[in-house]
Amino acid sequence: MNNHMNKSDKKNETRVKLIIKLLPYLRKHGLQTVRMDEIAKVMEISRATLYKYFSTKEEIIGFIVDGFIEYMNELTFSPLDSDQSFGTRFQQIFEQSVSLMEYFTNIFLKELETSYPDWYDRLNEAMKQREQQVLAFFEEGIQRGIFNDINGKLLIMQDEILRGMFNAKYLMTNQLTVQQILFDYYHLKKIQLFKSEKLSVIDDTIMLPRIEHLTHKITKNLF
Length: 223
Known about the structure:
Number of strands: 0
Number of helices: 12
Distance between the termini: 47 Å
CATH architecture of the largest domain: Orthogonal Bundle
CATH topology of the largest domain: Tetracycline Repressor, domain 2
Strand content: under 5%
Order of helices and strands: HHHHHHHHHHHH
Helix content: over 70%
Oligomer: single chain
């Protein structure tokens, strides 16, 4: 039994590593036209090895969607038992929002809806549930006197601004860097949401390596 579980865990770990290699490619090229031999090449494995981990492209897409749903569900893990916990949850939401925006391009979502409607429905439902969790988080912060009384839906919609800004042409034309945009946007969201006397509950040093990691990932996909 334990040997079987260890083998399953090891296989799943390898599957995750292979998908991480594939995601930037799917982000740029979409889902519909990519073939299994292309997927194997991007993953840097043989086609025969690919079939040991994924039997079909549909299974790959399902694994990706399930992974993102699990990632979104992480929002519910930490309890809001102190003012500092609101700062931690805010940072988690910010990092998660940027990551999801980076991979859920309009092309990806459109092709998922068209070619894999069942998976799209599952993902869309999870995204709606996440939005409700974020809105509930904003409302609780307002009720506890930590957040400004602000429209949570507007804060969420602001994330769409980044989608247009993370464009190589836009960055070069405006002499901006991905890191600069992320830092500025993080501080903008923080100041909008938290009351001035509550800003001290946020430990910005925690976000520095996270923003650097996001910068590297986004820049790599842009150029």
